[in-house]
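step: validate -> pass
step: tokenize input -> pass
step: predict -> running
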Amino acid sequence: MNQTTKPHTYVADITQLPRALRHITGQKRWVLWRWELRKRKNGAIAWTKPPYQCAHPKTAAKSNDPSTWGTYAEAVAAVAAGLADGIGFMLKDSEVAAADLDHVRDTQTGEIIGWAKRLCVEADQLGLYREVTVSGSGLRFIGLSHGSELHRKFTFHRKSGAGIELYRNTARYITISGLQEGSCEELPPIDDYLDALVARFDQQPTANPPFDPLDFNNAGAQADISAT
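step: predict -> pass
step: emit ->
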């Protein structure tokens, strides 16, 4: 894909989110996002998804300032009016936490790489909500949380950027696609799983292929998620 070509947005009908997410639509934590080309710290130009205010779609939303957040209805209306590419949910001091599996899904075939498939099995066993992210190349697990602040990123493949990023009570936002996979109808607790993932990957080296983060023959701390 040409770098200047706006990415396709993978999204379901955001006016009718899956049942598991409907209770958070009543919270004033919603923002907009748009695809934008921006220069990264390393000088590379890449497509990003910065958040914007629902009431003022040209003004940036701040992840640590609730006055810049809006309602779900406002966010949906702004997207319908063509003022943004999608909606997002702010996590700071919220009951919602998430795990992002980045660059793990083929956007054309839907095929998921091996270690991510195994995490999906774990997430499904725990009843977590799971959706395809708006890029089409990632997955997100969402659940309820009462834990302390957490923001950790583990990269397993430098070239592709494949890895996992964990968010809990942190000044960040997550995009919402509504492209649910699995059968979750009510968000379950996610804290124990996030803590187990940190324990599992915390001492793993940032890797090059053929490293498999779920190969239990590799060195590093490994958590038994079945115990959570």
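step: describe -> Residues 216-228 have pLDDT under 50 and may be disordered.
step: cleanup -> pass
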